[in-house]
Fold these 2 entries.
Entry 1:
Amino acid sequence: MSNEINVRIVSPITTKGFRKDSDFDIIRNSDLNISHSQIEIGPASIETEFDEAMCQPDTILKIIDAENEGCDAAVIDCMGDPGLKGARECVTIPVVGPCETAMHYASMLGHKFTVLTVLERTKPLIENLSKIYGVSSKLASATSVDIPVLELEKDLDHTLKQMTNKAIQSIEKDNADVIIFGCTGMLGCADTIENNLKEKGYNVPVIDPIPLAVNSAYVLAKLKLSQSKKCYPYPPEKGMVGFEKPKLKAVN
Amino acid sequence: MSNEINVRIVSPITTKGFRKDSDFDIIRNSDLNISHSQIEIGPASIETEFDEAMCQPDTILKIIDAENEGCDAAVIDCMGDPGLKGARECVTIPVVGPCETAMHYASMLGHKFTVLTVLERTKPLIENLSKIYGVSSKLASATSVDIPVLELEKDLDHTLKQMTNKAIQSIEKDNADVIIFGCTGMLGCADTIENNLKEKGYNVPVIDPIPLAVNSAYVLAKLKLSQSKKCYPYPPEKGMVGFEKPKLKAVN
Amino acid sequence: MSNEINVRIVSPITTKGFRKDSDFDIIRNSDLNISHSQIEIGPASIETEFDEAMCQPDTILKIIDAENEGCDAAVIDCMGDPGLKGARECVTIPVVGPCETAMHYASMLGHKFTVLTVLERTKPLIENLSKIYGVSSKLASATSVDIPVLELEKDLDHTLKQMTNKAIQSIEKDNADVIIFGCTGMLGCADTIENNLKEKGYNVPVIDPIPLAVNSAYVLAKLKLSQSKKCYPYPPEKGMVGFEKPKLKAVN
Amino acid sequence: MSNEINVRIVSPITTKGFRKDSDFDIIRNSDLNISHSQIEIGPASIETEFDEAMCQPDTILKIIDAENEGCDAAVIDCMGDPGLKGARECVTIPVVGPCETAMHYASMLGHKFTVLTVLERTKPLIENLSKIYGVSSKLASATSVDIPVLELEKDLDHTLKQMTNKAIQSIEKDNADVIIFGCTGMLGCADTIENNLKEKGYNVPVIDPIPLAVNSAYVLAKLKLSQSKKCYPYPPEKGMVGFEKPKLKAVN
Amino acid sequence: MSNEINVRIVSPITTKGFRKDSDFDIIRNSDLNISHSQIEIGPASIETEFDEAMCQPDTILKIIDAENEGCDAAVIDCMGDPGLKGARECVTIPVVGPCETAMHYASMLGHKFTVLTVLERTKPLIENLSKIYGVSSKLASATSVDIPVLELEKDLDHTLKQMTNKAIQSIEKDNADVIIFGCTGMLGCADTIENNLKEKGYNVPVIDPIPLAVNSAYVLAKLKLSQSKKCYPYPPEKGMVGFEKPKLKAVN
Amino acid sequence: MSNEINVRIVSPITTKGFRKDSDFDIIRNSDLNISHSQIEIGPASIETEFDEAMCQPDTILKIIDAENEGCDAAVIDCMGDPGLKGARECVTIPVVGPCETAMHYASMLGHKFTVLTVLERTKPLIENLSKIYGVSSKLASATSVDIPVLELEKDLDHTLKQMTNKAIQSIEKDNADVIIFGCTGMLGCADTIENNLKEKGYNVPVIDPIPLAVNSAYVLAKLKLSQSKKCYPYPPEKGMVGFEKPKLKAVN
C-alpha cells in the first residue's frame, strides 16, 4: 500500500499553457505526487482586486473537485491566495495558500521579510493579507518589479535583473532579512536571485512560494492536520444561481 | 436642474423578494434618490466565506452597471462588504460598504463597539474586516443571534428578543458602547433595539448600517469625494472567461 | 414644519474676523443650516499642546450653549479636536471633531492617508490622535508646510505651493493615498490642491475637514445618532471656580 | 551648598483642604524637598473628561509658576495627567505625570497591570492614556471602586475593602501582576492593600502613584534629564484672552 | 546516494531517560532520519525563566555539534525554544523551535489558537514569545494543566483529562480554533485529545509540536532554506570562560 | 541606623578590568551605595544572541549572591538585559535592566526614541526587547556606530563622533526625540553627545542607561517596590548539573 501524498495545485487563471505539468517536477519526489488543474471561469491573470474577485468562485469549485477526486491537500497557485477561506469551508483536506505559508515561514527565517510583487498596485493587498494572517509586524515592505504577470517571461533577463535590484533595495533600505516572491509566476527563479544577492554580499533566503506551499501541504496531510472546522465549518446547503452547486464530500 | 444625488443599492444575493423597493423609503428624502438592483449569479443568502466569494463577481458587475446608468454612488447591501475593493477599482463613483462605514462611525460614537451578527461562524470574518479597515482596537466583540439570514423575519419577536439580549450581554461583558447590526437583513430594527436597551438603563446608539451607508455615500457624492485611484486604479483590460466583460466608463 | 438640521460650528480661537459667516456658504444647503460661534477665553490660534489646553474650557461651554440654543449638532473648528470628549459628556446632540471624522473617512477612501499640518511640532499630536481614534495603522505620515495658522493667508500662493509639494512628497515617499488638511484654516483649498496633484499624475482625494465634519454631523442628526452616553455620561454637578457653571440641558 | 532637589506638586482641583502639606511627609527625605500648590480656576474634583478639560489651563500656569519659583521638577497631582503635554512645552524642568510614571514602572514590575480607578466612567480615559503612553499591551484592565473622589475618605473602611476586592478580581480574572491606584486621592493606602492581598495569597506590588512620580521627578532632576524640547518646543508668543499671559522662564 | 534528511533533536534538559529514541519512531520515515542528543550542563526540566536561562549554553553547543556531525537541521526539544536565536547565529543548517513553528502553523489552521502549558507561571513566557514571533494577534490564550513536566506521565489518565478539560475551556471561553501542546513532554497525546474533543462536538486540530517541528525542519533542509545570515550572522571569535569554545563549521 | 540603599551592579562579561569601581563614582551619593561584581563563566563581551545566552547563567547566580550578601537591588550591566527575567524569579529584591528602564523613561521624555547600539546585528534584538517591554510603538529606530564593545575606547574621539553623527541621523530621519545609549560600555558619554547635539540645534535628552537604572533601582528599593511574585514566582527546587545550585534566600 502506498504512503504517497497527493497534492493538487489549482491555478486560478484561465490563460492556457501558462503552467506546464513539468513546471512542478522540481517539487515532486518519491512520496509526493502532484496533479494540476486550472479554472475555466475567470480572468486571464491576477493583478488586481477585481481579478481576485472574479477568479474565486471557480477556484473554490476546483478545490472541491480535488477533494472528490481523492487528493490529500490543495494548493492555490496565486500569491493573493484567492478563495482560500471559502475553499477551507467546503473541504476537509488542508487548503494551503502560498502567500500565507511564505509569510509564516519567512517570519521564522528572519526578523523581517519583503514581498517582491509584480505591480505597485498589489502592495496594499499584500499589506492587508499580512494583517489578516497576523504577521504585519514582520513585514519589512512590499515592493514591485513593475512587470505584468503575463510578461514576466518575455524578457527573463530584465525580469531577473529587476528582481535582484528590488531585493537589494529592500535589504538595504527596509531591513529585509528574507525575500518572498510575490507572484507564483516567478516560480523557479529563487536560486538565481539568491546567488545574485550572495554576489553582492547578502546571504538571505529567497522563498519561492509554490514549492514551499506544496511541501507544507504535504506535511499537513502526513500529520493529518487540516484547517479547524470550528472556524471553517461546512457551508449550509442553499440555492445557488449560475454556478454548479458544490458537491461537498463531507456532507454527502 | 436637480441637485439630487442618486445612490444605487446592490443586493449581493439571488433570493427574489427579500428586498422590496419600499424598504428604503425610510432613507429617501428630497435630494437623495435611491435605486436598487440585485445580482443574478450567486448564492441565495450570505452567511459564509464561500457565499462571500460566490457573490462577488456579479456584485462588481452590477456596480459597474450602476455607474454606467448614471448613479452617483453605490452601496453594497451586505455586512461582509463583498466585492468592495474590486468594485472600487472598476468605477469612479464612490463605492460604500455598510460594514466599513458602520465600524468607522461606531469608532467615533463610542470607545468600543460590538457587531451583532447572524451566526457564530461570521465572527472571524468581522474581526478580519476590522483589521483591514484599521479599527480592530475599537472592536469590543462580535456576537451572534444564531438565526440564519433568511429566517430573521420568520419569528420577528424572537429575533428582536435575541438581538436585545445579545446587545445587553455585549454592553455588560464586553464593554460595548455602540451596537452595530451585523446583517443588513436586520434593516429597520434599530429603534426597537435602542428602546429595549433604554428600558434596561443603557443609553447606547444602535447603528442600522444601510441607512448610514447610504447617507455616507450621499455625503461623499455631494462633496465630490471618492476612493483614491492611487490604491484603487482601474484594472487593465484582459481576457475574461465565463463573465460578461466589464464595460468600464472611465476607460471607454 | 421644517426638516432643517441646524449645525453649530464653534471656533476655539479668540482672534476676531478669522472666520466670516460667508466662509461656510459652500457647505450650506436647503436642509442644512449653519450657525457659528467663537470662544471668548483662550488663545489667538491653536498650534501647540498649550493652546489646545487653554482653548478647551470655553469651547465646551460654547457647545453647551449650542445645545441650549436648539442646535442639532456641533462641530469643533480645529484639527486638534480640542474639547471633543469633554463636550460629548455635557450634551446630548452629536459633537463632531473634524480630525476624527477626516481620519475615519480617509481610512475608507484609501489604504493610507497623510495629514498635512501647519507646523512640524503638531506631528506627534496627530499621531497620538490617530492612536486614540483607533486608526494609527492607516496613518501614512503627518507632514507640515511650516507656516503658522494666522499666516496661512498672508501669501496664499506660497501656501498652496507648499501644500502641493508636501502632498506630493507624502504620496511618493510615504505611500499616502489620501490627503487630509491638518488645519481648518486651510478651508476651501481642496479643489486647488486636488487639481495640482492631478496635473502631476496623482488622482487622490483631498479632504477639507470642515465641510466633511459638518456633513457628517448632518447625517448623525438626521439618523438620530449621537455619542454613546455609556462612555460619555453627563458630568455630575460639582463646584467650579472661575468659569460659569455649565447649564446642562439634559439635567435641567 | 545644598544638593537638595525641589519638587513641586500641583493639585489640579479647587477644593480647599483636600491635600494637607503633611500628606507628603512620607515622601520627603534629606535631599528631596517637596512644595505644594493648587489651581484657583477649575473644578472641585476630577472625575470626567469635562473636569480634565476645565482644570488644564490653571494647572499649566501653576507649573510655569513652579519653574519661575525655582523648583527643579513638577508633578501633577491627578491620575488623568491633565495639562501634562501643554506644561512640558512651557517649561524646561521635567514635568511628571503620575499615571504615565506608574504605567511605565508597572510595565517593568510585571507582565500586565491593572488600574484601579474611582468611577466606571474613567475606564476609557485610562485605556486611551495607555495607548498614547505606548503601553496598551501591558494593560490588563481598568476597573473601578465606584466611589466619587471626594467621598473616598467618608467611609475609609468601605473604600479599602472595595479596593481590595477589585484588586483581587483583576488578579484572578484579568491576570494582573501589578495594581496601580487610579486616583491620587488614594494616597497612602498602598501598604494596606498590599497586605490584604498577601493575606489572600497574592504577592503583587501595589503602586501609589504620587510617591513614585515624585521620586521619578527627583531622579530626572538629579540626572539633569527632562522632556525633549524637540517634541515639546516652547509655545510661540501670541494673544491670550481671559488667562494671565504665561511668563516663560526660557523665553524671558 | 541517499537523499535522506538528517534531523537532530536536542533535548535541553539533563534528566536521563526522559526521552527514549523510540519516542521519535512515529515521526521517522523513509527519507527522514532522526538522531537525538541531550545537554549535559543545565536543569533537570524546564518550567521557569530561570531554567530557560540555565539550559541555553549547552543547548547551543549541542546544536553546533549537530552541524559538525553532518546533520541537515536541528530541532530544540522544548516549547520555550531556549537557545533558538543564539544557535541560529552559530550554524548554517536551519534551527527550528517547536513553539515558533507550532504558533505559525496554528495561525494558518485557524483564526486563533490556544497554547496548553504545564504550569500557570509559563503563561507570560508564551505571550512574550508570540509577540517576538509576530503572531500575538492570533493567540487566543495560554492556559495550563497545572502539572510539573516530570510528573506529566505519573498519572497519565489525569493528565489527559486535564488537557481535555482545559482545551474545551479555551475553545468555549477564549474562542480557540486550534490547540497547541505547550510542553514537548506531551508528545504523542494529540490523537487522544483530538478524539476527546470530537466526542464533545469540537472538530479542532491539535498540534503536537515536535512532529510538526521535525517535519518543518525536513522541508527547510529539502528546499535548502535556512535562517537569514543577515539577522543571524556568525558570532565573532572572542574569549569564553567556563564553556568549551564553540567550533563553528562555517568559520573554520 | 543607616537609610542607605545598597545597589549591586553585575557585569555579565568575563573581561577583567573593563569596569573600574571608580566608573560608578558619578552615580554614588550620600544614601546610595554601589557595589560591583562580574561573572566568572561566560563571554568576554556581549554583542550577539550567542553571547547573551552564554552569559545568563552566571549573571543570575551573581544576582542571587547579591541578595544573599544584603544588597537592596541589583542592576544588570548590559543593554541586552541578559538574565533579567530568570533573576527576577530567584530573588526578592528588585532586579533592574538598563535597557528596559531606559526605554520606559525615554517613552516619557519624548514621543519617540532611538537606541544607538554598537553593531548593526543587535538591531533586531533591540526591536524584540521593545516588543516584550511593551513600548515598540515608541521606538523610532535602532541604529549602530559599527564599533565592537571592547574597541569603543580605543579611539574615543572617533567613537564620540560616530555617536553624534548617528544620533543626528536618527533625529532627522527617524524623528527621534530622545537618544538612548545602546551599550553600557558608552557609560559617561551622555554630556558630550548632548552638547554636540545642542551645537547642531537639537535639544534632546541623551540617556546613559546605567546611572538611570541604578537610580531607578534606588527608587524601587526606597519605596519597597519589587517585581511581582505573581509573574516571577520562585523556581521550584530541582536537579541542576554543571552549575552550583542556587541558594535562594526566600526559600531557605
Entry 2:
Amino acid sequence: MSVFERAVVIGLGLVGGSVARDLAAHGVEVLAYDSDPSALAAAVREGVVQQALTADLSGVRGVELIVVAVPVDAAAEVLHLVAPYAGAARLITDVGSTKASIVDAAIGAALGDRFVGSHPMAGDHRSGWAASRSGLFRGACVYLCPAIPSSTSATSLASGFWHDLGALPVVLSAARHDQTLAWTSHLPHMLSAALALALARTGLTRDDLGPGGRDVTRLAGSSPDVWTPIARENATAIETALAAAEQEIAHIRGALMRRDEGDLRQRLVAAQAWFLASERNS
Amino acid sequence: MSVFERAVVIGLGLVGGSVARDLAAHGVEVLAYDSDPSALAAAVREGVVQQALTADLSGVRGVELIVVAVPVDAAAEVLHLVAPYAGAARLITDVGSTKASIVDAAIGAALGDRFVGSHPMAGDHRSGWAASRSGLFRGACVYLCPAIPSSTSATSLASGFWHDLGALPVVLSAARHDQTLAWTSHLPHMLSAALALALARTGLTRDDLGPGGRDVTRLAGSSPDVWTPIARENATAIETALAAAEQEIAHIRGALMRRDEGDLRQRLVAAQAWFLASERNS
C-alpha cells in the first residue's frame, strides 16, 4: 500500500475495524475516531491505531485516505464534518450497504471528485471492534460507486486500495447498486429477521434449530443500528423485493393447501436449479 | 456398539450413508440396499457395506438392527416389505424428517413394539452417498419417537444406538415432533426456497450474494425428492408456519412503506434478541 502513508478510519466497527487492521498490517499509519471511547482505546492499545482523533475530526487534516465506516444514516454528517479538513485527501470512501444517499452527500459536501463509495460484501451478523479481524475482505466482492463517474483517478485509487486488501472491486452506479443489493442482501436480511420473529412467537429458540435453520436465521443477529438505516434508505426497492418473496411463499403455501405435490415439487426443483447454477462457488 | 453385531441400512443417501459409515467404524457388520445400484456398489467397494441386499429385502432376515433411510413417502412401503423378515430385529428405526406417518406405518406392519422413529438434526443441502460422511451426527440432536410409548426397551436401544454415534437423543411423541419441526426445520427450508425463487426471477445468481445471503439460500439446494414428501406429509403444520412468516414479512414491509423507522427498529431488535438468547451455541 505504497500509495497511502497515512489514513483515517472513522468508525471502528466490524468493517471499519477490519479496514484499520489491514491498513496497519500494510504499514500505513492509521488515525481513527469512534464514538465509543472503549473501542477507540482498544484499537490504540492493540497497536492498530497510531492516533485517536477527537470528535470534531479536525485531526483528518493532512491525511491522504479517509474511510468513513459508520451506519449509513450517520455517514452524511461525517462527510460534512471532515470536508473542511480534507484538502490533502486523494481518496474519500465509505463502507455502507446503501450508496445513493452517501454519494449525494459527498457531492453536496463538494467532495465528489475524490469520493468513491465502497460496499465490501464481507462480514457477518456480529458487530463492533471486537468482531473486526484482519483479512476480512480477502476474496470478497467490493462494489465501487464513484460520486462523479468521470473521476477516473479516484476510482482507480479506490480499486487499488481494495485490491491491496484482497477484495475484488466491481464498479457500478450508486442507483444500480442499491437496486441490486435490495435483492441480494437486504431481502435475505429481512427474511431472516421475519423468520426469527415468527419463531420467537412460538417460544422455540435458536437452539431448537438444526444446522439448516441456524443458517437461515443467522442474519437475524445483525445489528439493528446498522440495518434500520439501510432499510429506510433503500425502502422502496426492499418493499418490492419483500413483496416478491411474499408471493413466492404464498405460492408454496397454496400448493400445500391444495396438496398439489406436482406444483410443490416443481417449485423446489426450480429453487434447487437456481442454487446449483452457482454451486461451483459454494 | 456391542449391542448390535449386524445391521441393515436401507437407503444410502446423505443420512443413511453416514449411519452406515459410523456403524462400520464401530465394527458392526453392515448389510445395505439402495435403489441406485451405483451407490450400493460404491458403499461395498469402499468397504463400508459387507453385503449388498436385493430389492425384495429378504436379506434382512436374522439382523438385529434395521435402519430405514429413504424419503418419507417411501418408508411405509419399506417397513411392510421388511416386516416378514424382521423376526430377529430388536430395533427398527428410520431417519425421516416427519414422524407421524412412519410411526403409523410401523404399527400397521405389526412392528410397533420394536419401532422407534428417529430424526437426526444433522446434514446439509447436499444429498446422496457421495455426500455421506462419518461423524455426521456428532453433537447433533436426534429426536426419538417410539411407536408405542410403553416400549421402553426399544426406546432405550434407540437412545443407546444414537448415543454411540455421538448424537444427543431427545424423546417426544411423533405428533409433537411434526408440529415442532414444521417451525424449526420445514419453515426455514420453504423460506430459503422461496427466496431462491424470488431471486431467480430477477436474473441474479447465488454468486451475486454475500456470505449472509448465501447462508439464507443454502437450504434451497436441498433435494426435492426428499423435501416434497416431507412438505406434503406435514402440510397443515407447515401452512400455519408459512402464514405466520408471511405476516411477519408483511409487518416489516408495512413499516417500510410507512417509513416508520421506530417500528422497523423494534422488529429488528426483537429478531436480534431472539438470536442472542441462544448465541452461546452459535
